[in-house]
Amino acid sequence: MEKLVDDGLVSSIGVSNFNHAQLERILNMAKYKPVNNQIEVHPYNAQTELIAWCYARNITVTCHTALGRPGLVKGEPNMLEEPIVKAIAAKHKKSPAQILLKFCVDRGCAVIPKSINPKRMKENIEISDFKITLEDIRSMEQLNRNWRHSQDSFWSCFRNHVHYPFNDF
């Protein structure tokens, strides 16, 4: 990746799903530090400490799976139905999805929601006309369980059968 920067093919390097120990290891040895860490962030996996750690080192954060994956895997929690999220949505006259996106954006993160539904895509874009309060953010952070969609679901089948060298970080 560093050669790509040297060759002028990319301007910066980002990483995905790195914890602070993995990032620290890279920062201590890399010619070019990562400028972004893409991580799973939602109220059940608030990542408050990791986000702060990244910001303290000028690493931006992009949130994935911010809306959860409702209905994809039976038994996984549906954050769109979380009572606290629904209450905050009602208070702001917004949808639960918009509140979950603002949970990332109003904490200074970029967010990449996935949808193939044009109505939901439009709704996901329309989040710039309000802010959630610090109290709202803290209420959602209190829901933290350090629970990841990717650890208990579909993706775990791949981790169990393939060894990746970077798993040793």
Automatic annotation (TrEMBL):
<dbReference type="InterPro" id="IPR020471">
    <property type="entry name" value="AKR"/>
</dbReference>
<feature type="domain" description="NADP-dependent oxidoreductase">
    <location>
        <begin position="1"/>
        <end position="144"/>
    </location>
</feature>
<protein>
    <submittedName>
        <fullName>Aldose reductase-like</fullName>
    </submittedName>
</protein>
<dbReference type="InterPro" id="IPR018170">
    <property type="entry name" value="Aldo/ket_reductase_CS"/>
</dbReference>
<dbReference type="InterPro" id="IPR023210">
    <property type="entry name" value="NADP_OxRdtase_dom"/>
</dbReference>
<dbReference type="Pfam" id="PF00248">
    <property type="entry name" value="Aldo_ket_red"/>
</dbReference>
<dbReference type="InterPro" id="IPR036812">
    <property type="entry name" value="NAD(P)_OxRdtase_dom_sf"/>
</dbReference>
